[in-house]
Specification:
The complex is a heterotrimer of chains A (352), B (142) and C (469). Chain A is mainly α and 352 residues long. Chain A has 20 helices and no strands. The radius of gyration of chain A is 29 Å and the shape is extended. In chain B, strand 3, helix 3 and strand 4 form a beta-alpha-beta unit.
């Protein structure tokens, strides 16, 4: 009989516990609904206050509700505004916020217990340059465990002109959950302002292919033609990702001197590299290599075919003429690709 | 009579901002909160210009633009695209379809107002010019 | 004689209890894992923050929409797909040999023109008759092809599309405007390894939908969809989220899923002639990537991305469930060698073990229990009080699990609109144990029987349109 009672007890306990759990949740929900209504009201007030600053061309309106500016929602609302307007209105908004010490408040919010608040605060600080911002964002990057917040912090540092150290940025790449694509903009910023550090890191022995690829791609943003040699040397690398990344960098630089080296990559064994080479040539060589590019109309990979056709069309009349004449090529695959491409890109040339 | 402008955007913030800015610049402003309403208003009322967002519920801005340009009654309504989409293809598509301007967010409010004013004045000037030409004695044209 | 019957029924009774315990332990583990996952992922970012953070760097996506006899809704569906918040995507509609005017209404509404497009036939499908594009809306591509079923249509879409990622969508699913931005996040965070991402599918019945947009979220007013709401919460928020944590997600709903094009082409696209093509593809991906010893992730995100209409009548629901069961069993058979095979790691043990327990053995044992226990109780072999206690304890567990998933939803997502709705759902959790669960087991057995018969009606089913897609 004992086991029977035990089973019943378990059953009753489970059912009872679930119901109590649910009742608690419902009660919490009621409380939360009310709290959210209050928060929404405050958000609307912040929005109103910022709107008034935007419209107030004379600067006469007085908006000094200290409590309002202390809210954890200010960074988020602010970001909504700067995503919308720039120019005089944005400057005025930033000035008035500084006048109300809102930037101090943003720096304090970097320690907020909610991640979404910290995230918004660090992003918003990108518009409030200065030593104290740089210092507090540095501290945040040092202490936070969340990769996305660290990367957001680095982006903020780049935009306020306080550049993070290259090894610190590269360390992000080797950590799990790295958003390499978001890091790329940080690296581009470093390439523009801290080129020597980037180049030094590139020379380090034992860095991974991913790291090198990211660095090479970023070099394109340096606008410094002295990196041409580095990029061209990387075209000889045995890893296709490195070659493709170097080509992306060269495409950004768009320097005609690199064209012969890029053109050599049109015959690369990896199709990603071939496609990248076409894109890079388009940027740096005008129509000098039109016939070499048109040879890829018969490439075994359709994406390369497409890139070459697109490149020819973009060259204007000479390229397009070449494409037109390719539609009469004896090689079936060339003529087919050429006519399909012309038709697809909106020009006549489809064969009957 | 002030010129009437239709603003189509699903963002409350932007609608408020433009309403204020455009009203201060002496325009009358109508509001549409989604693409469907925008198309309906634009094809039933007379506006001097439409400020159009791209990503809106019901019907996206590009589709609104295409339908307006396909409709002979609205084909000549000047459209200023104001959107967060920054892709080259988007810009070219919109201009190709007949948008008069393409501005990306974040935008400079004063610039938008200037462009709108210029656009409307140009239209009025062209109309005036056509009228004076029509009213001239025939031999002077020949 | 009596002795033999007694021993046999005792043995069967023990079986029922053991599987019951295994199933519920399994559920509890899932609940714990899902809780950990949800806690660590934190609250979902607001849509405008997503756009600000990711719109500059996200890869292009092709949305693939297979359509079969959708002339009434397809224009509206496409219009709402064009209004998604994502910087660069194209929408590829695949008209799968519709017998109604699906293609004509599209041509008329969007001013489509016949064009040609470069593509290689990498995945197999029925011949494409023509490709249409809009001269003004470059993001629209419409493929007209001979009828071949959903997998076939999707394969054609994969071939013709260009983007590195593709998103398969049912023509009748209603997407959240920021669905793509949310689901692409794992691809951004782990671009090398992520090959597929699924998201939570919710039930749209009862909500106000206009022009392909959810205007107001409301709970269904009818009982069957309400029961399914609880079921979906459990399946997505608990099971899939838990398995995502262990990289053993075996199914990404056909209603919405984001995939890496090259990985899917590597396995030859969708398999033709399957009932559960969505599950089969994911299992196939796991198998291929494990066999090639690749480090990969198939992820699941808890945020709702897609809303779908649930069956409101018993008959339609029954057909849906038997079809799901057939699909599961079919996939299980086709890739059976992965089960408990150390070569396939956790996928073989947890993924397939789970199917074995809850889809293969589970329904059978359940049914035996439902039939046997009352008989035993009536004949006096099993004391009535023990029988009742057993029913009570299983219902208690069932309730605790359902309430647990409801709590997950409430703690993190809060998409159940009102406090009173929460109370209603709690009631449904209790009700679910009295009849619905049993009905489900029955349908699964029906599906199993049909699967064993290799029912010939499959070909016809795929041509019926969406609900059967």
């Amino acid at each position: 009989m004992n086991s029977l009672i035990l089973i019943w007890q378990v059953a009753c306990f489970l059912a009872g516990a679930s119901l109590v759990w649910m009742l608690t949740l419902i009660a919490l929900r009621l409380i939360r609904t009310r709290r959210e209504a209050i928060l929404q009201k405050r958000r609307d007030k912040i929005t109103d206050a910022m709107s008034r600053i935007l419209w107030d061309e004379t600067g006469a309106a007085v908006i000094d509700n200290k409590r309002l500016w202390k809210s954890q929602m200010v960074p988020e609302v602010f970001l909504g505004f700067v995503a919308l307007v720039r120019g005089e209105e944005r400057e005025r908004l930033i000035d008035r916020l500084i006048g109300n010490d809102v930037d101090d408040q943003f720096r304090r919010l970097l320690h907020h217990r909610r991640k979404s608040v910290r995230f918004a605060a660090v992003e918003a600080l990108a518009y409030f340059p200065g030593l104290s911002t740089a210092r507090s964002v540095d501290a945040l990057i040092e202490n936070t465990k969340a990769a996305d917040i660290r990367i957001a912090g680095m982006r903020t540092l780049v935009s306020i002109g306080s550049y993070p150290l290259v090894p610190d940025v590269m360390a992000e790449l080797s950590r799990p959950n790295a958003s390499a694509r978001r890091l790329q903009s940080v690296l581009s910023g470093l390439a523009l302002h801290r080129l020597q550090d980037l180049l030094e890191y590139l020379q380090r022995p034992g860095i991974s292919d991913t790291e090198r690829a990211c660095l090479l791609e970023a070099l394109g943003a340096s606008t410094d033609y002295s990196v041409l040699a580095t990029l061209q040397a990387a075209l000889q690398d045995e890893a296709p990702t490195i070659r493709a990344a170097a080509l992306e960098g060269l495409a950004d630089l768009a320097h005609p001197d690199a064209a012969p080296a890029i053109a050599a990559c049109l015959r690369d064994s990896d199709w990603n590299v071939r496609a990248a080479a076409i894109r890079a040539l388009r940027e740096s060589a005008g129509y000098a290599y039109a016939s070499e590019i048109s040879a890829l109309l018969s490439d075994p990979v359709w994406l390369v075919q497409f890139e070459s056709a697109q490149a020819l069309v973009d060259m204007g009349a000479p390229g397009r003429n070449l494409l037109e004449s390719s539609t009469r090529d004896p090689d079936e695959s060339v003529s087919r690709t050429a006519s399909l491409a012309l038709a697809e890109l909106g020009f006549a040339g489809e064969r009957p | 009579m002030p010129a009437k402008i239709l603003v189509a955007d699903d963002d409350r913030l932007l609608r408020g901002l433009l309403q204020h800015k455009l009203a201060a610049a002496g325009f009358e402003v109508d509001i549409a909160e989604d693409g469907g309403t925008a198309y309906q208003l634009a094809s039933t009322m007379q506006y001097a210009l439409l400020v159009l967002d791209a990503m809106m519920p019901v019907m996206d801005g590009f589709e609104v633009l295409r339908r307006l340009k396909d409709n002979p009654y609205t084909a000549r309504l000047p459209v200023v695209m104001l959107t967060a989409r920054r892709g080259e293809q988007d810009v070219m598509d919109a201009l190709e379809q007949g948008a008069s301007e393409y501005l990306t967010k974040p935008f400079i409010p004063d610039e938008l107002v200037l462009r709108i004013r210029k656009r409307i004045e140009d239209d009025q000037a062209r109309e005036l010019y056509a009228q004076t030409q029509r009213n001239l004695p025939n031999e002077r044209i020949a | 004689m009596m002795d033999v019957i007694l021993t046999v029924s005792k043995f069967i009774g023990l079986m029922v209890i053991v599987t019951g315990v295994v199933q519920y332990t399994n559920y509890f583990t899932q609940l714990v894992l899902a809780t950990i996952q949800l806690m660590s992922s934190g609250k979902a970012a607001r849509p405008d923050a997503l756009w600000r953070r990711y719109s500059d760097t996200v890869p292009p996506i092709a949305i693939l929409v297979p359509a079969f006899n959708e002339e009434k809704t397809i224009v509206e569906s496409l219009s709402s797909l064009m209004a998604m918040q994502y910087p660069n995507y194209e929408v590829v509609i695949i008209n799968d040999g519709s017998s109604d005017g699906t293609l004509d209404v599209l041509i008329k509404a969007f001013g489509l023109k016949k064009t040609s497009r470069l593509y290689s036939p990498l995945a197999p499908h029925e011949p494409i008759r023509a490709i249409y594009r809009s001269p003004h809306q470059k993001r629209i591509v419409v493929i007209d092809k001979a009828n071949g079923g959903k997998s076939d249509a999707l394969n054609a879409g994969i071939n013709v599309s260009r983007a590195p990622l593709f998103c398969c969508v049912d023509a009748d699913s209603v997407l959240e405007p920021d669905a793509l931005l949310r689901t692409v996040k794992p691809f951004m965070e782990d671009p090398e390894r992520t090959v597929a991402v699924g998201g939570t599918v919710r039930i749209a019945n009862g909500s106000i939908i206009r022009n392909g947009q959810i205007l107001k979220v409301q709970l269904p007013k009818k009982l069957l969809p309400l029961l399914q709401t609880v079921e979906y919460l459990r399946a997505f928020l608990m099971t899939r989220l838990a398995w995502s944590q262990l990289n053993t997600v075996l199914i990404i709903s056909g209603a919405f899923g984001l995939f890496r094009r090259d990985a899917v082409l590597q396995v030859g696209g969708y398999s033709l002639g399957t009932v559960g093509e969505d599950m089969e593809l994911v299992v196939k991906l796991h198998r291929d990537l494990r066999e090639r010893k690749q480090d990969y992730r198939i992820k699941f995100i808890p945020e709702p991305v897609c809303w779908t209409e649930a069956p409101e009548t018993l008959e339609v629901l029954r057909n849906q469930r038997t079809r799901w069961q057939r699909g599961t069993l079919e996939t299980f058979e086709r890739h059976g060698k992965m089960a408990f095979n150390p070569r396939y790691g956790l996928v073989g043990v947890i993924g397939f073990g789970n199917i074995l327990i809850s889809d293969v053995i589970g329904p059978v044992v359940d049914a035996i229990g439902y039939i046997l226990f009352p008989i035993l109780a009536i004949t006096g072999t099993l004391p009535l009080d023990y029988f009742l206690a057993y029913v009570a304890v299983t219902s208690g567990f069932g309730l605790a699990i359902s309430v647990g998933s409801l709590a997950l939803e409430e703690a993190q997502l809060r998409r159940v609109p009102k406090a009173s709705d929460l109370a209603l759902l709690t009631g449904i959790c209790i009700l679910e144990n009295l009849g619905y669960r049993q009905l489900n087991s029955l349908w699964r057995i029906r599906g199993g029987l049909q699967y064993l018969q290799k029912s010939q009606s499959w070909g016809v089913m795929t041509r019926k349109g969406f609900t059967s897609y």
